[in-house]
Amino acid sequence: MLSLPDYPGLVFILSFVTMWLSARVGASVLRRFRRIEDDARDDFGVIQAATLTLLALIIGFTFSMAVGRYDQRKNYEEEEANAIGTEYVRADLLPAADAAAVRSLLKSYLDERVQFYTTRDDGDLARVNAETSRLQSAMWSAVKNAAAAQPTPVVALAVAGMNDVLNTQGYTQAAWWNRIPYAAWALMVLIGVCANVLVGYGARGLKASAGLLLIVPLIVSLSFMLVADIDSPRGGVIRVKPLNLHALADSIRTP
């Protein structure tokens, strides 16, 4: 099920409005209660700079978390393609009838894995997951029956290869579930709000700084949108493409 970070455009709009309102609150509301005295402006500048630096660090760390998860999803896509391709070749080690059955199942399984990476529809994803589970059971039964009928070290290689196929799918699913925690998002938004309040509070004139008060909210919102885009497996523009699985499918179907 998709959540707010799965819609980077919406994240940008909501965060920009929130950050801009925070800056306006600091510039218009807080300054009515107490203005910054000239002798205290240096101390305020230190606090403001420290808060903005902390915000930059938090965004940087969160961006690093998102990139790490994106790289993990890419690596597991490559591992899935390698495992399926290896098992397709190792099917030659099985008896002819079992080998044909395993290869047919692997072709259907490969199509489902490609669909898993490309679909954005929840209903289609549920169908893909159900079909994937069914094909996994069928493939495991095929190699298990062959190993039971002919328990040799050669057939055991095909069984081990099928085990790798099943394992890599589990690793992939775990990687897609591994997202930036909501607590990290909440902390980042809270620090962003505080930073923009201080930016607005430190503005010397509301009319003169009206345009300048858009800069920090815009930059922070763009950063949030980029983090959400990279962290979301199915939302946004930056997604893992099953290039290795596509290449494997083309090579299998090439006579």
TrEMBL record:
<feature type="transmembrane region" description="Helical">
    <location>
        <begin position="210"/>
        <end position="228"/>
    </location>
</feature>
<feature type="transmembrane region" description="Helical">
    <location>
        <begin position="6"/>
        <end position="23"/>
    </location>
</feature>
<keyword id="KW-0472">Membrane</keyword>
<keyword id="KW-1133">Transmembrane helix</keyword>
<feature type="transmembrane region" description="Helical">
    <location>
        <begin position="44"/>
        <end position="67"/>
    </location>
</feature>
<feature type="transmembrane region" description="Helical">
    <location>
        <begin position="182"/>
        <end position="203"/>
    </location>
</feature>
<dbReference type="Pfam" id="PF14023">
    <property type="entry name" value="Bestrophin-like"/>
</dbReference>
<keyword id="KW-0812">Transmembrane</keyword>
<protein>
    <recommendedName>
        <fullName>DUF4239 domain-containing protein</fullName>
    </recommendedName>
</protein>
<dbReference type="InterPro" id="IPR025333">
    <property type="entry name" value="DUF4239"/>
</dbReference>
